[in-house]
Specification:
Helices cover about 70% and strands about 0% of the residues. The chain is mainly alpha-helical.
Length: about 150
Amino acid sequence: MRMSESRLHSAVIVVLACLFASLTAHQPAFAAQPGQSIIPLLQQQFGLTEPQVRGALGALLVYARARLPKPDFDQLAQSIPNAERIMEEVKLRGVVNGPLDDIDDYEAALSNLGMGQPLASQFAPAVLKSLGAAGHYRERDILARVLK
């Protein structure tokens, strides 16, 4: 009986060690997945259509691109699915008609999407919150520097 208890004890230790090793090896899998879209979060929060949210995000990316170093902007853009295409669309659709010199210009551009005040001033802070909720903490912090 002593021998089987010892084997059982050893087997339990091996199983627990394997379980611990597998959990620590896959630790990033428990975080939010990169590329998780914030678009549905913003649609639901504001009752906007997908094209409106994409347009507002595209205009925000155009605004941020002019203010961020390329590596920071590239990291931020990775958190928005199809960021480059979205930025092109807002220019082609006339949402952004020129440089966005300040946050007021960005918010004014949102009127081209049917988003007036106070919604326009609420959108960028909601993007920050949504980035955090989706696990994009570094990207949220990068964008927050632009919005100060």
